[in-house]
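User: Quick sanity check before I run a bigger batch. Here is a single chain. Can you write out its predicted 3D structure?
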Amino acid sequence: MESKKITKVRKATDLTPKELNVLRSTSKLSDKEIKQWHEVFDKDSFVKLYKELHPQHDEAASKALIDSIDTDHDGSINFNEFLFFTAANARSCSLDERLNVMFDLWDVTDDGQIDQNELAHLISAMYDRARIKDRQGENNPH
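Assistant: Done. Predicted structure follows.
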């Protein structure tokens, strides 16, 4: 009998225990507060919170930060982009904890591996961030 690989498809809106842990340790918010914020997260709520936390930053600095977080350059910040930014900049977490969260963001099947499609998606996101449009030939993410 042949065994089939069972994978869990992870939606971008799911909040994993590892992600929750990183946010808890970097924000000092409770699990309940993080989950509530996760449910209503959008670019406007991020900008509002950022301005409250950093009133000394002007609009240009805020826009530059938002542009650096918006990795797919669609004009919005989704929760995964925010989480990736938070994990990458979480000085209170170890490097291993930050890398584990980033890995989990790309391991959408939650099988502990990055398969070819997940890697292609990661490479495409890197191309988006670098604004590389040519994805033919040796630049093909696959």
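Residues 24 and 46 are 17 Å apart (CA to CA).

User: Great, the batch can go ahead then.
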